[in-house]
Amino acid sequence: MKKLEQSSMRFDLQIIASWIEPGSKVLDLGCGEGDLLHFLEENKRVAGTGIERVEAKVAQCIERGISVLQGDINEEVLDYEDDTFDYVILSQTLQQVYEPAKLLQSLLRIGKKGIVSFPNFSHWSIRVQLLIRGHAPITKQLPYEWYDTPNIRVITIKDFRRFSKKVGFNILKEVAINTDHHDRQGNIVKFLPNLRATYGIFLIGR
Amino acid sequence: MSEYIEHDKNGISVGLVEKKFFTFAEPPDELILEGGARLGPVTIAYETYGTLNADKSNVVLILHALSGDSHVAGYYSKDDRKPGWWDIMVGPGKGIDTNKYFVVCPNILGSCLGSTGPSSINPETNKPYALDFPMVTIGDMVTAQKALMDYLGIRKLLSIIGGSIGGMQVLEWCVRYPEMVVSAIPLATTTKHSALAIAFNEVARQAIMADPNWNNGDYYFGRKPNLGLAVARMIGHITYLSDESMRLKFGRHLQDKSDFSFNFDADFQVENYLRYQGTKFVERFDANSFLYISKGADYFDLESQHGSGSAVKAFSKARAKFLVVSFTSDWLYPTYQSKAMIQATKKNGLDVSFCEIEAEWGHDAFLLPNERLTLLVRGFLERVFEETRTEQHAF
User: Fold this and answer.
1) What is the mean pLDDT of chain A?
2) In this predicted model, what pLDDT tens digit does every residue of A170-184 receive, in sequence order?
3) Which residues on neighbouring strands pair with residue B97, listed in sequence order?
4) Which domain range does residue A142 map to?
5) B70 annotated active-site
6) Residue A92 DSSP SS3
7) Residue A3 predicted with pLDDT over 60
8) Confidence at B11, pLDDT banded by 50, 70, 90
9) Three-state SS across chain B?
10) What span, in angstroms and rounded, lies between the C-alpha atoms of A174 and A69?
């Protein structure tokens, strides 16, 4: 039963969930309808809270018994005291953040550890679209046209590693994944991840 | 708050209910009020719905706003024209499910709908108190509610729910009796009235006091200040709606006519609506109660009364899990006031959820049928109820 539930969750969330110690305090930034928090509460007894901007998604979280705040993640993180959480999660949202350095610093102020996942912009299919066809790439992971995309930051797995040195945080663990079937299934990419992985997932610390 | 009471469209109701009374603080053990005055005896009217479970862990306390009463749901008799004021939310299978929870709703101290207030008989004079009634605060209302809970043998409240002035009482409960409150749902409310809210209340009070029949509050044996109270109610109704809701509901439509009357009759629908609401209100509400309750609400300041001016400090006393709800078009208690509350709860590491519901109906939105609000309340209550059970097992 538990396994079934796990595989119905996005594959990157399955990896993230596996990194979280049972019983910890977790904040999920941009938690959507609360799939990850729900899973963590059911299976790892975490005390979870989410922040989500869209009213309908917030309402869905509360209806299913998840604690969630409606608001802008960049502002909401400012109210928490230092070390409030064991983990702060930012899954598939970094590419939409206006001031990523500032947000990641807040994340590691209020959380002892951070978990960040994002679509890898140097995946071969993106490179091919740019190189051969010469148009702004559209993929399953980044499905928008250039004129209506919420994804304002172009990040690759390599770039994130460089960014960690610049901003001054540590990468404690990293996994590159390749996903298929609506991102529900996937596999871990060890060989040439920056070229072959659709997502990068990083556990970061101070 | 306004009255939107309608029969449940699915015909589901908690059924016949009865108003009960609890009297305490008999002299010489009067209730000592925040202002220092003594008041006694004190009667609190209340109603209950559903069944108290064996370990008394399923109590939901509903607290009403300025003009509400203990009659939150159901009917007094088979011929009753209307159910209680929140019948859409409270009943079998509804947002606050009376099959699961034991719901208590007391009428507030200072009201005229069953509980002791300025229209009650002063035992010293055998006449209505009128302005001899001492000023009662939100804190005093809560003290009286606590006495009722003691009387009912209730030591834990699974949840306290209230909108507007009812929400202020919810917040007061959370910091005054933190060990009793498992969870709290403050709706469309604030930790303190803004100058704008006080200003509207003051105009409403002035309308009552300017009515010659008000007679310094001493009108119980003669003509009542009905005009003043009606105008006060009209002002209230403007603040409960919004620019958008009034535009949609009335626009500039004329009432039963195609042209202006060129006199001061109610030409516009909105004029007619306000006059109707005002006239209807005086049939059931006491002008002095309006003065006392509105002033008590203006005095409420959770931050200064419980945190020396700091919201963070005030909420440091609270232990409850919170669900805070505001409405986009509420300009009486705008969302920024709920956000300030949330900021303080977050800084205290409290478990808090917040949703700003998109609604065009202004402050009154919390009383109107709203599927989203119903689902939020239901989901939150189910969660906290379940959590109390697992926590009990853990011990």
Assistant:
1) 92
2) 999 999 999 876 677
3) B91
4) 2-205
5) no
6) coil
7) no
8) confident
9) CCCCCCCCCCCCCCCECCCEEEEECCCCCCEECCCCCEECCEEEEEEEECCCCCCCCCEEEEECCCCCCCCCCCECCCCCCCCCCCCCCEECCCCEECCCCEEEEECCCCCCCCCCCCCCEECCCCEECHHHCCCCCHHHHHHHHHHHHHHHCCCCECEEEEECHHHHHHHHHHHHCCCCECEEEEECCCCECCHHHHHHHHHHHHHHHCCHHHHHHCCCCCCCCHHHHHHHHHHHHHHHCCHHHHHHHCCCCECCCCCCCCCCCCCEHHHHHHHHHHHHHHCCCCHHHHHHHHHHHHHCEHHHHHHCCCHHHHHCCCCCEEEEEEECCCCCCCHHHHHHHHHHHHHCCCCEEEEEECCCCHHHHHHCCCHHHHHHHHHHHHHHHHHHHHHHHHC
10) 29
Read off the tokens for A171.
């990468």
pLDDT of residue B7: 74
List the CATH number of the domain containing B319.
Answer: 3.40.50.1820
Rounded Cα gap, residues A195 and A192, in angstroms: 6
β pairing state of B352-357 and B321-327: parallel
Query: Is there a cis peptide before residue B28, judged by omega within 30 degrees of 0?
Result: yes
ipTM for this prediction = 0.91
Average pLDDT over residues B3-9: 71
Does residue B275 lie in a domain region? no
Is residue A1 scored above 50 in pLDDT? no
| Residue from the list A55, A65, A81 with its beta carbon closest to the beta carbon of B383 | A65
Of the partner residues B342, B349, B386, the one whose CB lies closest to the CB of residue A84:
B349
Chain B interface, mutation test: which of A25, A31, A38, A70, most B Cβ atoms within 10 Å? A70
CATH classification of the domain holding A14: 3.40.50.150
For helices B195-209 and B287-299, what crossing angle results, to 10°? 160
* Chain B nearest C-alpha distance from A6 (Å): 21
Query: How many structural domains is chain A composed of?
Result: 1
Residue B2 in domain:
no
Q: What is the pLDDT of residue B347?
A: 96
pLDDT tops 70 at residue B110: yes
The catalytically annotated residue of B69, B97, B140, B330 is B330
Question: Residue A33 has what DSSP assignment?
Answer: T
Mean pLDDT computed over every residue of chain B:
95
Angle, alpha carbons B102-B17-B109 (nearest 5°): 75
Contacts of A80 in chain B (CB under 8 A): 346-347
Has residue B263 been placed in a domain?
no
Look up the domain containing B56 and give its range: 20-193+301-394
Does residue B198 lie within any of the structural domains?
A: no
pLDDT at B2: 63
Inform me whether the pLDDT recorded for A4 exceeds 50. Answer: no
* Residues in chain A closer than 8 A to B323 (CB atoms): 62
Number of domains in chain B: 1
